[in-house]
Amino acid sequence: MFFEGTGGYENGGEFRPVGDAIRIHQPILTWVGKLLTGIRTALSRAEGWWFDATRRVQTEGYVAVYQVTFAASGESGYDYSPTRPSTLRKILAGLPVADLTEYTFVDIGSGKGRMLLVAAEYPFRKIVGIEFAGELHRQAEQNISRYRYAGRRCADVEAVHADAMEYVFPDTKLILFLCYDRLPTLD
Ligand SMILES: C[S@@+](CC[C@H](N)C(=O)[O-])C[C@H]1O[C@@H](n2cnc3c(N)ncnc32)[C@H](O)[C@@H]1O
Question: Which of 52, 77, 161, 187 would be a feasible disulfide site paired with 137, CB 3.0-4.6 Å?
Answer without folding.
Answer: 161
